[in-house]
Amino acid sequence: MTLSLFDQFMSPTLLGIPLMALALTLPWILFFKPGNRWSSSRFSALVAQFLKWFTKEIFQPMSLGGHKWALILTSLVLFLITLNMLGLLPYTFTPTTQLSMNMAFAVPLWLATVIIGMRNQPNLSLAHMLPEGTPALLIPILIVIETISLFIRPLALGVRLTANLTAGHLLIQLIATAAYVLMSIMPVVAILTSVLLFLLTLLEVAVAMIQAYVFVLLLSLYLQENV
Amino acid sequence: MPQLNPAPWFAILIFSWLVFLIFIPQKVLAYKFLNEPAPQNVKKSSSTNWLWPWL
């Protein structure tokens, strides 16, 4: 079987057992529950700071009805950031490169925000279809456009995360292959390629964190519109 | 692209939601924060200034 560049994204199986289960459950061993002390450990202090900062950022602009979502959105950001960052280590599998997983989170959560809006305040939710101050002639077209943009949101959420992470991992693999091959032929160019690889890895670390945050931020914005 | 392979889609969906609903909220809820953030419309009652008791 010829190896193609996309093989790193295949759902890993070993003797027919899907290892995706391991890739999804083992990262949580890294997070210990903090004990009852006032200050447990350095890592738990860092995680606590992050959770507090994140909760403030997302829920300060939200009305009180949306605060019920605090636990699920905070869990989601922790989930995504951990999976993204761990995927940058060599030989690890990143579940967030799988479109199935990202859509599995994007579609139900987006649909939940839409349904909440439609049930609690249907007039206001439907009014979002038409921005204020549109000229009367443009109203029909704009309604169609806004409805399309509403339904494209879950697709965009899922595909954005998938594509960003897949592209990053693919680039790392390509440039690393290039550096490795060039090492025997043109060592100086190989060193330059390695510098590029280093910078790219830094970028990927940033992208991993930002994309997880953006996913949850957009969900919280959709919630703010509807709650 | 192997991501578009429909075979494990449903299994991945179910399993990732199970992990997301079972393991992570336990770990998140275990963090206790000791301050109560007050809403912004609460007025602070004016308190007497503290001074050294022997002055």
Automatic annotation (TrEMBL), chain A:
InterPro entries: ATP_synth_F0_asu (IPR000568), ATP_synth_F0_asu_AS (IPR023011), ATP_synth_F0_asu_bact/mt (IPR045083), F0_ATP_A_sf (IPR035908). It is found in: Mitochondrion inner membrane. It comes from the Eukaryota. The chain crosses the membrane at residues 12-31, 69-89, 101-118, 138-159, 171-199, 205-223. One of its GO terms (cellular component) is proton-transporting ATP synthase complex. Component of the ATP synthase complex composed at least of ATP5F1A/subunit alpha, ATP5F1B/subunit beta, ATP5MC1/subunit c (homooctomer), MT-ATP6/subunit a, MT-ATP8/subunit 8, ATP5ME/subunit e, ATP5MF/subunit f, ATP5MG/subunit g, ATP5MK/subunit k, ATP5MJ/subunit j, ATP5F1C/subunit gamma, ATP5F1D/subunit delta, ATP5F1E/subunit epsilon, ATP5PF/subunit F6, ATP5PB/subunit b, ATP5PD/subunit d, ATP5PO/subunit OSCP. Belongs to the ATPase A chain family. This is ATP synthase subunit a. The gene is atp6.
TrEMBL record, chain B:
One of its GO terms (biological process) is proton motive force-driven ATP synthesis. Signal peptide: none annotated. It is a single-pass membrane protein. The keyword Ribonucleoprotein does not apply. GO terms for cellular component: mitochondrial membrane; proton-transporting ATP synthase complex. It is found in: Mitochondrion membrane. One of its GO terms (molecular function) is proton transmembrane transporter activity. Keywords: ATP synthesis, CF(0), Hydrogen ion transport, Ion transport, Membrane, Mitochondrion, Transmembrane, Transmembrane helix, Transport. The chain crosses the membrane at residues 6-24. It holds the Pfam family ATP-synt_8. Subunit 8, of the mitochondrial membrane ATP synthase complex (F(1)F(0) ATP synthase or Complex V) that produces ATP from ADP in the presence of a proton gradient across the membrane which is generated by electron transport complexes of the respiratory chain. ATP synthase complex consist of a soluble F(1) head domain - the catalytic core - and a membrane F(1) domain - the membrane proton channel. These two domains are linked by a central stalk rotating inside the F(1) region and a stationary peripheral stalk. Component of the ATP synthase complex composed at least of ATP5F1A/subunit alpha, ATP5F1B/subunit beta, ATP5MC1/subunit c (homooctomer), MT-ATP6/subunit a, MT-ATP8/subunit 8, ATP5ME/subunit e, ATP5MF/subunit f, ATP5MG/subunit g, ATP5MK/subunit k, ATP5MJ/subunit j, ATP5F1C/subunit gamma, ATP5F1D/subunit delta, ATP5F1E/subunit epsilon, ATP5PF/subunit F6, ATP5PB/subunit b, ATP5PD/subunit d, ATP5PO/subunit OSCP. Belongs to the ATPase protein 8 family. This is ATP synthase complex subunit 8. The lineage of its organism: Eukaryota, Metazoa, Chordata, Craniata, Vertebrata. The gene is ATPase8.
